[in-house]
Design brief:
By secondary structure, this protein is mainly α. The protein has a domain of 33 residues. The chain is built from three helices and no strands. The chain is elongated and about 50 Å long. The chain starts with a helix and ends in an 8-residue tail after the last helix. The relative contact order is 0.12.
Length: 53
C-alpha cells in the first residue's frame, strides 16, 4: 500500500536524523511521488464537492 510506505518513509526521515540515506529519499521523490500525487488527485475527484454540484 503506497500510503503505508509513505508513512514509513516519513517516520524514517523524521526520526532517523543522520541515518537517512539521501539517495533513497531522492529516488523516492522522483520515482514514487508522481504516482502517489496522481492517486490523491483521483481520490479527490471521486469525493462529492462542498457546494453540492
Amino acid at each position: 500500500m503506497p500510503l503505508a510506505f509513505a508513512y514509513q518513509m516519513r517516520n524514517a526521515v523524521a526520526h532517523g536524523y543522520f541515518k537517512v540515506d539521501l539517495e533513497i529519499v531522492w529516488k523516492t521523490i522522483h520515482a514514487d511521488l508522481p504516482g502517489l500525487h496522481l492517486q490523491v488527485q483521483q481520490a479527490l475527484e471521486g469525493l462529492p464537492s462542498e457546494n453540492g454540484a
